[in-house]
Amino acid sequence: MRRPRTSPLVRAAVGALAAALTLSACGGSGNADAVRDDGSVDLSQVTLVVGDQKGGSEALLSAAGDLEDLPYDVEWKPFTSGPPLLEAVGSGAVDVGGVGNTPPLFAIDQGKKLKVVSAYSQGATGDAIIVPEDSTLEDVADLKGKKVAVAKGSSANYNLLAQLDDAGLSWKDIEPVYLQPSEGLAAFKGGSVDAWAIWDPFTSQAEADTGARVLSDGQGLVNGLAFQVASDEALGDKATRAALEDFLGRLARAQVWAAGNKAAWSKTWAEETGLPRAVTDSAVERRSYSPLPIDEDVVSSEQEMFDAFKAQGQLSADPDLQEWFVPDFNDVIEKATAEAKEEL
């Protein structure tokens, strides 16, 4: 129900829009001057604008040592979750950014000018529905009629949808409260919602800060995938695309490194984000880091998700996802992954 005064959600939306407009003014792929007369690319003249989330690509690449010898500049842009990040990617204000398994589907439904260019499995244990320590709720079926905080269009959005369906409930059986993670944490701590659908490191943070209980996690119900998504503008710019190819290879190597060096990764993640080490330790243990090709398995899994959202009325388009998930960088990522595994 609408309130006569401006709600926190509306204020958050206005803030996100203002941020997107600011980013649009800054622009993304402006690297045309990096292409030499002979058609080769001078990467030293390239700036790659990368959207990032808490404990995301920058922290991971830093921990793995893959930011030390970059032949191009990276301008990092922080975002609270995947949907606003892809808003910036779709507008061309950001060249590429990492998100979970759901934001690309909402962006595709809206016809955003972007493509999914790489994938990796991070597992689904950290994707959870949590409740306060003293909550009387014991299983997902108990959420009927309850207020559940969730970031609309995020991976938590699908996890919640899948969990409800598995419990014999629909989206209409709960009262979703659409909040970005920081607002969701505040609402959860303040007791204004009964449960919170969220992902790590926020799951681990809520457990550590408030004693939150995991009501259910995504294991066996969601695909646990995460993606890098690039703007059409970046992909169409020769110099930016060259930097992007290198960047995706580095990310694949860093993911393999994280899988084999969990303690070192957790330490850097804590240092980069200011989170307590206990929180990052928990989040790292719950995650897997396995680069994957963009292939039929990935696309079909995402298509199942799209169809589920559409059946619930949250999405409405009828796209061919093959056109949005591009395998152009599979060879680069496969090579980088193999090299990293040899080094472990």
What can you tell me about this protein's structure?
With 344 residues, the chain is α/β, with parallel strands linked by helices. The chain folds into 2 domains: 25-122 and 224-343, 3-Layer(aba) Sandwich (D-Maltodextrin-Binding Protein, domain 2); 128-217, D-Maltodextrin-Binding Protein, domain 2, CATH 3.40.190.10. The protein has 13 helices and 11 strands. α5 links the parallel β6 (147-150) and β7. It is globular. 51% of the residues are buried. The model is unreliable at 1-27 (pLDDT under 50).
| CATH domain fold name of the largest domain | D-Maltodextrin-Binding Protein, domain 2
Write down the overall mean pLDDT: 91
Please count the helical segments: 13
Domain module count: 2
Give a short overview.
This protein is α/β, with parallel strands linked by helices and 344 residues long. It has 13 helices and 11 strands.
